[in-house]
Structures are given as structure tokens and as C-alpha cells.
Amino acid sequence: MARGNGKGNGNGNAGPKRARSTRTPVRSAGGAPPRPKPPAGRTRPEPAPVDLRVQLPYFAVRIAVLLVALAVLLILDVNPILAVLSGLVIAGVLTYPLGRMQRRAADRAADRAADRSPERPSGRPE
């Protein structure tokens, strides 16, 4: 007597076999699918080069806060994985206002870089 709901042939197959498609998707010579062209008249502005030296002090302070939090947690004999995760959360909460200042400084640096002439992107005379 067969079990189940009557579908299948009893050897583990759930139903009739389907023929697989032999067609392959068409790709460009580079291997990637072609990108859609942007609408006419709309072009994306070219990103200005950003001076990362502006962000260095903010980054250094945020890393220092993380290391201090991590050291305190490890001194308190917290599991190292839990200490790293907790340290990231603590440092993120404590340095959130600093991160906002860092974002504003990066925006100001990008605005200054965009105002420079395109002939000399470094801003220095040749």
C-alpha cells in the first residue's frame, strides 16, 4: 500500500521531471551583464577627492576611546569576545557627537576640494 498523498512514484521523486532550459543568459564580453544607461540630461556628479588628513584626529580619538573601554573590560575579567563587542558599543555611544563633528569636517573638506580648479586637484602650484 502506498503512503502519502498519491503524488510521486514511490522512489523519492515528487513528480514528473521537468526539462531543464539549455539557454544561457547573454552576457557582454567582460562577463558582467550590461548596465542600463542613465536617463538623458541626468548625470551623476563626479566625487571630489577628499583629504583624509582632516579626519585623522577624530579617528585617533575614537580609537583611543575604544582601546580604553576594551582595556577596562579586560581588566574586569570579561570574556574577550564580549569585551570587544561591548567596547565597540560603548565607544560608539560615547563618541557619537564626535562622529557628527567628523562628518561635518569631512563635508567641509569635500566642499573645499570641489571648489578647487580641476587642472590642479591637489591645490598646490606646479
Q: How would you portray this structure in words?
A:
The chain is mostly helical and 126 residues long. The protein is built from 3 helices and no strands. α1 packs across α2. The mean pLDDT is 75.
Helices and strands in order:
Blueprint: H1 56-75, H2 80-94, H3 96-115
Helix pairs in contact: 1-2
SS content category: mainly alpha
Spatial separation of the terminal alpha carbons: 91 Å
Strand content: under 5%
Number of contiguous helices: 3
- Helicity, as a percent range: 40-55%
Shape: flat
Main sheet: strands, sense, barrel: none
Overall average pLDDT = 75
Specify Rg, calculated over alpha carbons.
29 Å
The number of strands is: 0
Order of helices and strands: HHH
Which spans of ≥5 residues are poorly predicted at pLDDT below 50? none
